[in-house]
Amino acid sequence: MIYDPPKPVIKIRNLVKSFGPFTALSGISLDINPSEVVCIIGPSGSGKSTLLRCTAFLEEYTSGEVEIEGRLLGYRKTPAGMVRESERNIDTARRNVGMVFQHFNLWPHMTVLDNVTLGPRLTKGVPAAEVSEKGRIALAKVGLADFTDRYPSRLSGGQQQRVAIARALAMEPHVILFDEPTSALDPQLVGEVLDVMKQLANEGITMVVVTHEMGFAAQVANRVVFMDRGQVVEQGSPDKLFNEPESPRLQEFLDTWRQRNLLFRSEPQQLVAAC
Amino acid sequence: MTQVFELWIEYWPMLAAGLATTAWICALATMIGIAVGLLLACLDGARSTILRRTVRAYIEIMRGLPILILLFVLYYGGPGIGLRLNAETVGVLGLGFYGAAYFAEIFRSGFHSIPKGQIEAARMAGLSAGQIMRHVKLPQMLALITPPMVNQIIILIKESAVLSIITVAELTKNTAQFVNETYAVVGPYLAAALLYWLLVEAVALLGRTVERMVRY
Amino acid sequence: MATVSLIYDNLPMLLWGAGITVLVSGVAIVLGMPLGLVLCFGLTSSRAWVRHLSRLYQSVWRGTPILVQLLIIYYLLPFLGLNVPPVLAAIIALTLNTVAFQAEIFRGGLLAIARGQMEAARMVGIRKWTARRHVLVPQIFRLVIPSLVNETISILKNSSLVSVIAVTELMRVSQQIVATTYRPFEIYIAAAVIYIAVNFLLSLLGRAAEQRLARGV
């Protein structure tokens, strides 16, 4: 039998995104394979978040292609070129993509459980009792089983972000995109969110994480992608990227980062909480 | 003074009938205004530039136009272009489509108040545009837009007095009739003012109740 | 073609009417400013009876249709022995109405100004009304220009109602032209265009004034 390589969950080809005269992404190509945890790092303004938002088609890309499980997202190929898909088809194409945002984006007028179950309830045609049960399971997974009836405003930032993760999980996605999930949190709350993410990674959930948490990337990622000025500059295993960086830009980035976090070499475990 | 009250009592049925007409015309016009206003506000967020410009033009024109002119164009000018409507219909449609421009602006400010991230989260949860409107936008906006909406309904009630000029037998028109029949002048109009004021206060009270209900 | 000449022939009349419209509303707005400021200070007075009276005035004038107010004043003045021409009755009615709305606009501006400023002025010995005039009023105006422009547009639109008491402003002139030409659709549309143009001009002026003041800060 011939070895059949795994089909990527996300396939990005020559992705370009410009905002007027400014080019945010200049030709990115990237595959995300099943059960892979990919961390995207890089200086701010390097296009990491834009890449993630284009992958979810929250942002229309200028050219290139994004495929989710073999299906083109956002546009349709026609003899006349790429034509924008209808909203309905876009919704269908990204049905299996979940997303966790920097600012949680919970809906403040709904309880925690309603936040988690709204999507499945409205889009999956599953009986209400079953949806609620799945919502509770998702909340239990992020350690918030007792918080179902609270409103988001009564939770800490870390708890809110865990609810947001549960909300993404409840849709049973094949891949979850994390857009700087801990950047808006107080330092002492970062750990609880990263712990949940680690646990998901161990369960084999495919994840793409844009992050500034080098400790997390070093520990959990299968692959780290370094971006700068709208390009993928270098990628590889965390060990290789952090210990033997090839490109000067990555070396510079890591040096700057190390100077700011002198703890880096001695106690990588504590980094998670430190930054 | 007692004379004034006697006249008020004698002409009460006429005033009451006028008040009732004012009330149902305003109720219908409000419904049209809110429905059309919501539609305009949604179209204002559409991706088509032409659609957005048309909506903006409609809103700007209505906001620059005295309601009286709109009613005259519809009522006296309408037959010239084959539009024959009775005065009540002109009143309801005129007030409704006029108010729609103002309701649209209220809805628009409501939409703007909802952080973009919440809409993105809803799209990532697979919700359609209609579902996002129903479950994410409207419930949150309601608390914010209720006070200006109530205010706009009150303005609409006051503007409805203008319908007397195109012969709709509403409160102001019936009061004028009252004046013609009795030659009393100030008394009847004071009665009308009082009734308008009561109607407006009733709506304001209702508004405050709704406001308490929609808070989450 | 007939439409063009119809409008063209009657344009001088319509513009004359528009002039009266602008005049009547302009006078009402300008008279309304000092009175509105006084009512605004009444609304925020430390004396309870002044506050209550101010609020009562405001509630009455904001809670009833301007058409009814106009008719009451038009009929009430002769009843009180004051035989004034309709145009004056119109100006009085529009002024008394706009005062109630302007007071609310000014109050909004006043609330946005730090309390300490008034206290500071009083502490260096400036009298209350002098301090209000020189310290608060200039700042209030700066803050409320957009709302004031909206109120002007609103009064300009409402001034069409004074046609019912035979003031020959734009609305009334249009009716007179319709009575002789029997062309209501064209004439009323023409009047509508003039109203919209004047209001558009007003909002442009307002924006320009706003920018100049913003630069001056």
Automatic annotation (TrEMBL), chain A:
Where it sits in the cell: the answer is: Cell membrane
Top-level division of the source organism's lineage: Bacteria
**Entry membrane topology:** Peripheral membrane protein
Q: Does the keyword tRNA processing apply?
A: no
Gene Ontology molecular function: any one: ATP binding
Family per record: Belongs to the ABC transporter superfamily.
> What's the protein called, per UniProt?
Polar amino acid transport system ATP-binding protein
Query: Per the UniProt entry, what species is this protein from, by scientific name?
Result: Aquamicrobium terrae
TrEMBL record, chain B:
ABC transmembrane type-1 domain location, by residue?
19-207
Membrane topology of this protein = Multi-pass membrane protein
Keyword tags:
Amino-acid transport, Cell membrane, Membrane, Transmembrane, Transmembrane helix, Transport
Q: Which residues cross the membrane?
A: 12-43, 55-77, 186-206
**Main localization of the protein described in the UniProt heading:** membrane
Q: Do you know which SUPFAM superfamilies this protein is assigned to?
A: MetI-like (SSF161098)
Q: Does the keyword Zinc-finger apply?
A: no
Where does this protein reside within or beyond the cell? Cell inner membrane; Cell membrane
Keyword Protease annotated: no
- One Pfam family named in its UniProt record: BPD_transp_1
Q: Which PANTHER family match?
A: GLUTAMINE TRANSPORT SYSTEM PERMEASE PROTEIN GLNP, MEMBRANE COMPONENT OF AMINO ACID ABC TRANSPORTER
Q: What does this protein do?
A: Part of the binding-protein-dependent transport system for glutamine; probably responsible for the translocation of the substrate across the membrane.
Q: Which family does it belong to?
A: Belongs to the binding-protein-dependent transport system permease family. HisMQ subfamily.
Question: What is the name listed in the Swiss-Prot or TrEMBL entry for this protein?
Answer: Polar amino acid transport system permease protein
The record lists the organism as Aquamicrobium terrae
From TrEMBL, chain C:
Q: What Pfam families does its record include?
A: BPD_transp_1 (PF00528)
Key words, A-Z = Amino-acid transport, Cell membrane, Membrane, Transmembrane, Transmembrane helix, Transport
Q: Where do the ABC transmembrane type-1 domain residues begin and end?
A: 18-206
Question: What's the superkingdom here?
Answer: Bacteria
Q: Where in the cell is it found?
A: Cell inner membrane; Cell membrane
Q: Give the residue spans that cross the bilayer.
A: 14-43, 64-82, 187-205
Topology of this chain in the membrane: Multi-pass membrane protein
What InterPro entries does this protein's entry cite?
Answer: AA_ABC_transptr_permease_3TM, ArtM/GltK/GlnP/TcyL/YhdX-like, MetI-like, MetI-like_sf
Q: Which SUPFAM superfamilies match?
A: MetI-like
Q: Does the keyword Transmembrane apply?
A: yes
Report the family membership: Belongs to the binding-protein-dependent transport system permease family. HisMQ subfamily.
Q: What NCBIfam families does the entry give?
A: HEQRo_perm_3TM
Name it: Polar amino acid transport system permease protein
What is the scientific name of the source organism?
Aquamicrobium terrae
